[in-house]
Specification:
single chain, alpha/beta, Isopropylmalate Dehydrogenase, Rossmann fold, ten-stranded mixed beta sheet, two-stranded antiparallel sheet, 12 helices, 14 strands, globular, binds 3-isopropylmalic acid, binds manganese (II) ion
Amino acid sequence: MSKKYTIGVIKGDGIGPEIVDEAIKVLDAVAVVEDIIFDYKEMLMGGVAIDETGVPLPDETISGVKLCDAVLFGAIGGSKWDSLERHLRPESGLLALRKEMGTFANLRPAIVYDELINASTLKPEVLSGVDIMVVRELTGGIYFGQPREQLKDRAYNTMVYTREEVLRIAKVAFEIAMKRGKRICSVDKANVLEVSQFWRDIVEEVASDYPEVELSHMYVDNVAMQLIRDPRQFDVILTGNIFGDILSDAASMLSGSIGLLPSASTGKGVGLFEPIHGSAPDIAGQGIANPIATISSAAMMLKYALGEESAAGRIDNAIKQTLAEGYRTGDIGAYDAREVCATDEIGSIIADYASRE
Ligand code: IPM
Ligand code: MN
């Protein structure tokens, strides 16, 4: 009997539809060899939802995702919707969806594919073997803190963390560290912010339950520097919402392109899997976007949400093989490329490798 999973699909805006289509192509290819059936349920969010329903996160999507086994998401946003009131912008839809789904733990791996070692602006000898997992708190901090307001002569946001919020994300990071290099660097700005000292104290408390894990603390400005100076010093980076947002973009450049890195947002129930990059409206519809981050996010979905390790491994290996054979999209096309492919071409090549016995 085949296993059957319901996958929520939110394509979103800009390059979202093109890259999600390629991830589905690859999922369908592994489904055949792994005897899995995926039942896709498409839902609206972001600018496309605003255009069709007037709001960035329709009620139907909120109730729909809760009935799925996992949700695959592309990207949202674009200048067309930038002048809307904040709560009606595409980004507000994504933030509300993360909150609704309770996906407080955002895992953002930053790895360097050997085949692309020349694609980064950093020197190969600094990069070889980099393997970092950024654990970003996703449903708290300054993104959600109250009060918040924009007035005529003054505007403010509030960075709030509760004990419960820090405890649960710290536990996730320690559990992950136990399965990796057993080292965590917790990132904060405790020299300036009360909320950061609070964060640090609670992470210390959690650490006492994990004596095998080596915990260090670093200020976020220093981490930004260290990521560029010597990224190999990091195993797991544990941090809050906004620092994690910024540091994961920085870490993505170690790999050579932001178009390569996936993410998994997990927490209370159904998980959300999305590339870390945005909707890139400037290249949308041209067939040149790199779908690897989304395809890799689909692999994370198989592993973390569905427990389909073998299918996930197939996709990871297929991506590596595709890169090793010299197939590239334009963003990484200048580096050891045999052929620069269109979005759908590289998707098909990965799907083909993923489905081989
Ligand atoms: C990300 C994005 C989002 C974030 C935006 C689009 C709201 O930058 O997923 O990193 O800031 O979390
Ligand atoms: Mn971001």
